[in-house]
Batch of 4 targets.
Target 1
Amino acid sequence: MPNTTLTQESKVVPVGSSPSAGAGYRAWVARAPKQPMTVENINPGPLGPEEVEVAVEYCGLCHSDLSVLNNDWGITQYPAVLGHEAIGRITALGSSAKGLSIGQRVGVGWASDSCMHCFQCMSGSHNLCPEVRFTIVGHRGAFASHVRSHWAWAFPLPEELNHADAGPLLCGGATVFAPLAMYGKPAQRVGVVGIGGLGHLAVKFAAALGSEVTALTSSERKFEEARGFGAKRVVATSDSAGIQKMAGQLDLLISTVNVALDWEAIIGLLAPNGRLHVVGAVPAAIPVSVFSLMMKQRSISSSPSASPAVIRTMLDFAARHNIAPQTEHFPMSRIHDALARLQAGKAHYRIVLDADF
């Protein structure tokens, strides 16, 4: 195996699970689309001066992992190590890493690096950096014994959070919290389309912010659970009459699904100056008449996950308001069972993998 000893630029304190002495990482590796992953030893190479190394304890399983595994978006770089909702303890710090310490528990989400000098980074929108690095594309993710990131993308966890269930906050939670942070207003009427891994967190966050929340779901079995998450009203997406009765009533509507909808009817739910914000990766174009926007001064927008500042705010907010994902756990050694459950739409609501290398 190639030498993995860290350079003198890296500060390493011996920690039981650290691979820094040359043992390498263990990781679930995908070598082709739609094929089973295999456990392999990986040589991580020298730790960069601004990098941190994290021993993975837990990692959420996101539908984006499945999309990248299957190369649904055409951006996968094989061999790939997936997993981008990681929770673990820091085992090594580069010499220029700031604000973190060995042994500290942190989370790493959808992005693991950005250039730190462009206009977007310097203005706080690191997630919009033209050089932002996705944790699972061209970078080794967290279905592994260890994961690395730039220090600014490793987020200390508030002590009040249950760290075993916190992983999905790093991607799913950040993704739905971002539009609430950008466009949220007092006494707002917020709708959430899709009460799944992202949607159930959107309902929880919006309710905690004081919004009147309407949940729209294709599954009637989720009606009572949606109310338990904080929704005041729940409507089936197949209920055309029910949706028609809601026309013009929502100030902000967050769509978390990745399937086509009756977009004209969805936009019709918006009040004057209302906004449809799409965070679900819908593969097909969204057709819309300009008049349905123009005559009521409505808007359509979208966003990719969140900036470091918004993620830190979200974690603090979740800790203060006791907001946590609803999860089910699998040992990481049963990763293929977990992926099959996710692909079958049976996850309730987020799956977390417990590292057991």
Target 2
Amino acid sequence: MGGILFDMDGVLYQGDRPIVGAAEVIQWCQQDNIPFLFLTNTTSRPRSALLEKLRSFGIAVTAEQILTPAVAASHWLQNHCHGPIALFVPQATQEEFQSLDTVDWHSADVVGAIVIGDLGTGWEFNNLNAAFRLLMKSPQSHLVALGLTRYWQAQDGLRLDSGPFVKALEYAMGREAVVLGKPARLFFETALQLLGLAANETIMIGDDIHSDIDAAQQCAIPGIQVRTGKFRSDDLEQGITPMPF
């Protein structure tokens, strides 16, 4: 058997509750030396926080076995960016970029890239305009997005995610962002590189028919959909066929 890519929320746990059997599956992978990697679109928390959560569910892994958009972006920037990087991401997430030359965007002049994540209520006009001005001053810089999620369900109702703010900058600049995070192809290609396996040697296990299954299969990675988390019966009526198991 080759390697396995696991989605996290909806596959290993649902919110703050573990999904029955998830810990045993990971233990089986470890005992049989099956390469695996956890994929998540979380940008508000670093891997250290995710590790603590997994351990509370009886899943003991290392930080290197978790791929987040911030980690994928860090890998991409190391190979493609020349110049300091301005981070528009939560404070906790900034630890994933420690190996890079970062600069405080409040005082930055010219940058090699700006990284856009989910700042939540921190996305107000002055901050968005600061990102725009940095891009205008640095025409060769990269606009890197940690995903393009439009909105999410918070406890107090729907909230805008980072996608709309990335799209605002794309529109203002007249160019597209480099997107790291599901369902972007670059995210899955990074996962394969980290595993050291080809697409046909790997499977993706997820609950989201679009961001997990279809996105993986667009990269020639077979996708298995679990019936937990986001799964709905009408997922199977959308022209996307998960791998049978």
Target 3
Amino acid sequence: MGLLLRLARQWIAGETAEQGLEQVRKANSKGILGLLNLLGEHVETREDIDATVREYQKLLDLIERDHLLSQISIKPTQMGLSVDFDYCLQNYLQVAQSCFEQGNNHLWIDMENSPYTQLTINLYTKILSKFPNTGIAIQAYLKRSEQDIKDLIPLGAKIRLVKGAYKEDPNIAFKSKKDVSDNYSRLLTVLFTECTQDNFVAVATHDRKMIELSKDLARKSPKSKYEYEMLMGVRDNLKSDLVSEGKQVREYIPYGPKWLPYSIRRIREKKSNILLLARSLVTQ
């Protein structure tokens, strides 16, 4: 477990809010914006969920206090979606209100695995109707995502397009790397073609081909509002390249003691991470 934790430090700022904020400071010093996430999902007790809400509100206070350039992103099951929909909604609205009051900061809703997809979209549309400063992640590997995007755009949605990191059934998800990339390209085209001034696009990928495509699409749609989002510890040189081109770049910065499930997904996503872990085991 100790070796896995050492590897996880590549993608995780630490276990405390202050460690997360320190990573934001480092990112800001390089011209990169932050997107903080307290690690954790499938929280089952109201006591723990209420503590999560307080942690995010504290985080917003610290961001404002330290004049940091960072938004926050929260998983629905952290906020009680697997306990009660209305309870989860009220928790999100409470945090969204805090975002609005603190310089109109932005709240992003992470997308989890497919049993929660429609519920998360339902949550988002209700929150968006009260707080335009909210966005949602949409996963390109789900076959339903094109229709979801087309339904959300007229509502003024802010959409973060990711490829997706959960294991899903092939009946509902594209499985091959090529099919996922092809659908990501298709969805990017929809976003840049159909979004209006009310929308915002977060191109959340480390795939240089997708980034180059987005640049082409943006040139054809000069009024598009967009940025690039990448994970902490991944493709740092590419982040710097984009900043040097004058692009807005944001780094997803997770922190907290519940780092294991997140780290396992990161390792699954990138074979070189498994090789790095194996090399660490051999050299001990």
Target 4
Amino acid sequence: MTIAGGIMGALFHRAQTGEATTVDVSLLGTGIWSMGAAYGLSLLHDVPWTPPPKEERANPLYANYRTKDGRWLAFGCLQAGRYWAPMCDVIGRPELATDPRYADHVSLLARTSEVMELLREAFAERTLAQWRERLVGFVGQWTVVQDTLETAVDPQTLANGYIQDCQTAAGAPFRLVAAPVQYDGVPAVPRRAPGFNEHGDEILADLGLGEDAVIDLKIRGVVA
């Protein structure tokens, strides 16, 4: 939906100006945007938002595993049979790759609880930093489960401008998540919410009311 909305915005812009733009949308930007309220509160108070990852999955290689130092690794290997041998090398148990109990995708899914317990024990033996090193050459899909504060300073987040600096009406700084659609590589900078009746007079003027009429409405309590 984000991509579709971005393309519609670009087409409207072209229709109005004759200029074409480049639409940029990413899963990371959209994911952060969907948690915008959580990020805003987390960044304001400098407290990470850390919901507990779900552990149980039908596929043991599509699950989250806790490290020795209490961090989490998330794996998204939909083809368990394809990535089982490389996973066995990563955890230092290459003999499991030829174990007939885990011969293929069907066998792994049939023994999900057993395999997950095996992987839980393995990942609990090393810290996140150690696993980062061991997983460098892993061909499957994986990532570190980051909290809101970590994601806010992730190299990809910073490079793409997914978190933007803002100011309140009084000039106090805070940060907000930018809209997940970018045009021509430029992030959309979010703006603060207006103060109470901040633009009231301007809106009334745009409606054609003169200064005397606005004052009269205020005296009678019709508008603030």
